[in-house]
Amino acid sequence: MTTDPNAGPTIDSTAVPAVNRTHTPTVGSSVAPAADPTVGSATPAARTEPHRLVVISVDAMSDVDVPFARTLPNFARIFEGAWARATAIYPSVTYPNHTAQVTGRTAAGHGIYANELVQPGVRRPDWFWDARAIACPTIFDLAKAAGLRTATVNWPVTGWAPSTDFSVPEIVDRRGLEETRALVREAASESAREYVDRHSELIEWTKKPHFGRFATSVAVDVIREQQPHALFIHLVDVDSERHATGRFTPEVKAALERVDGWIGEILAAIEDAGLASSTNVAIVSDHGHVEVGRCWRPNTLLVDEGLVRVDADGEVESWDAWVHACGLTGQLHLHPEASDDVRARVLELVQGWVADPEVPLEAFHPSADMRERYGYDGPFLGVLEGTSGTNFQNMWDGRSLYTRFDEDYSFLLSQHGHLPEQDIQAVFALQGPDAAQGARIPRCTVPDEAVTFAHLLGLEIPEADGAVVREMLTGDAARG
Ligand SMILES: [Zn+2]
After folding, report:
1. Exposure pattern of 179-211 as b/e (b: 16+ CB <10 Å)?
2. Which of 95, 294, 329, 403 has the maximum number of C-beta atoms within 10 A of its C-beta?
3. CA 96 to ligand 1 centroid distance, Å
4. Phi-psi group of 374: left, alpha or beta (phi > 0 → left; psi -120 to 50 → alpha; rest → beta)
5. Mean of pLDDT values over 360-385
6. What Å distances lie between residue 242 and 16, 139, 250, CA to CA?
7. What pLDDT score was predicted for residue 8?
8. What residues have their beta carbon closer than 5 A to ion ligand 1?
9. Which helix (H) or strand (E) holds 428?
């Protein structure tokens, strides 16, 4: 844990990102071998009977939301325990941070360096759905090795998860609702498929899938019927409303109220199972949000320069350089077969963008700098940081810039992916037998959360980029 609000997550300079081994120029779908659950020291701690753990991720919930959330009955119960502001890892987007919450590593260590796979020329790339892309042990691997049973519901990067007993992943088939229902089932663990079958009619689809009602029903049944030692669930509604309507709108408030109801169902299931006094319940979130002022399509500029080449239909034919959008950040990818001359030309072009006030680019950070500062690495030359509120898009056609005053602006109103110590922050709250009642901690990091969860389960993450947030704990858990 760090209490310095300007400090980034701690860095393990010895970690080698597996993504460099697996990246291919056209498709990011190749994955690293599954993390070996026997790797590391998954030795149970002295407390032989750890309490159960339920972790509820309220995507994009911020510290600013806490006073309102505490007027809602179920958020209030959890936030009466301990809570901390939590600094996200870079980039401050969903999949890298949810992977940090179950590995204790930054992206250089866990390998999930973006939400989406790098697929130049694909208009709607796949996301990092597949748990086998994670390059280090997860808390689920360690739990399995220690004989604990785990469950995940709608948690990112859990498709085809190797170690989770009951896994119902967040995964989408772009073709539609029925295809998505089938894919969720296929990517679920075998023992979880009966819960998918029981509730998959609750997956909704308006422009995109909505899993909240479905996920809550699955989690409630798994808690009641299976009583896993740990269950992690991801609820997305607050984030979705922020993107679509803005950071602090009536729709966001309504989403917090809706999520509060779902949390209430989960707490009731814990009570029904007779586990209320022996279960720690955490609420976490993964990043803040920044108001979007403009959308920028740097790949249109790469087309103009001939560094991305399109065919007669406007589809990408070949590329030397590609900017992979990651919210308010973009990664600069160079084709593996590009020459040194092309590399020099691309870097010169990007420096020209930084120097041009008409280009909404604040800085270019080479990968070595990002590794040093944020524990961030991947198969790219470096990171483009937009000016405040600049949302990156992968698209290579249309205009390079769309501002909020443009009549055809039809994009997000709020976004994240920015430097995580800036603006509103994520939260980490803990209630239950090991929670220090009323504790308020100014700052921890998202990797700290995973290390704390492992500690509560009597596990130890072998190479962590965080530490147990002991100020949130009481009794043996605070001392052990
Ligand atoms: Zn998120």
Report:
1. ebbebbbebbbeebbebbeebbebbeeeeebbb
2. 329
3. 9
4. alpha
5. 96
6. 35, 30, 10
7. 36
8. 59, 94, 239, 286
9. strand 426-431
Q: Specify the amino acid at residue 469.
A: V
CA-only gyration radius of the chain, Å: 22
Rounded average pLDDT over 380-386: 97
Residue 170 Cα to ligand 1 middle (Å): 12
Residue 19 in 3-state DSSP? helix
Determine the distance separating the centroid of ligand 1 and the alpha carbon of 286, expressed in angstroms.
5
pLDDT in tens, 178-211: 999 999 999 999 999 999 999 999 999 998 889 9
Give the Å distance between the CA of 94 and the centre of ligand 1.
4
In the block, which residue shows the tokens 């001392």? 479
331-357 mean pLDDT? 97
Rounded to the nearest whole angstrom, what is the distance from the C-alpha of residue 312 to the centroid of ligand 1? 37
CA of 259 to the centre of ligand 1 (A): 15
Distance 73 CA to ligand 1 centre (A): 24
User: Among the listed ranges 29-33, 79-83, 342-346, 388-392, which one has the minimum average pLDDT value?
Assistant: 29-33
Tokens read off for 466: 């965080």
CA of 234 to the centre of ligand 1 (A): 9
Alpha helices per DSSP H over 23-155:
66-69, 73-79, 94-103, 107-110, 139-145
Contact 292, 418 (CB under 8 A): no
Half-sphere exposure of 93 (CA within 13 A, CB side): 23
* pLDDT for res 30: 35
3-state per-residue secondary structure call for 345-362: HHHHHHHHHHHCCCCCEE
Q: Tell me whether residue 227 is exposed, middle or buried, using C-beta atoms within 10 angstroms of its C-beta: 0 to 12, 13 to 18, 19 or more.
A: middle
CA of 239 to the centre of ligand 1 (A): 6
**Can you tell me the distance from the alpha carbon of 438 to that of 299, in angstroms, rounded to the nearest whole number?**
49
Stronger pLDDT, 154 or 16, i.e. the higher one? 154
Residue range 451-466, pLDDT digits in tens? 999 999 999 999 999 9
CA 476–ligand 1 middle distance (angstroms):
33
Whole-prediction pTM = 0.90
Q: What is the pLDDT of residue 6?
A: 36
Q: How many angstroms separate the CA atoms of 369 and 18, rounded?
A: 18
Residues 474, 434 contacting (CB under 8 angstroms): yes
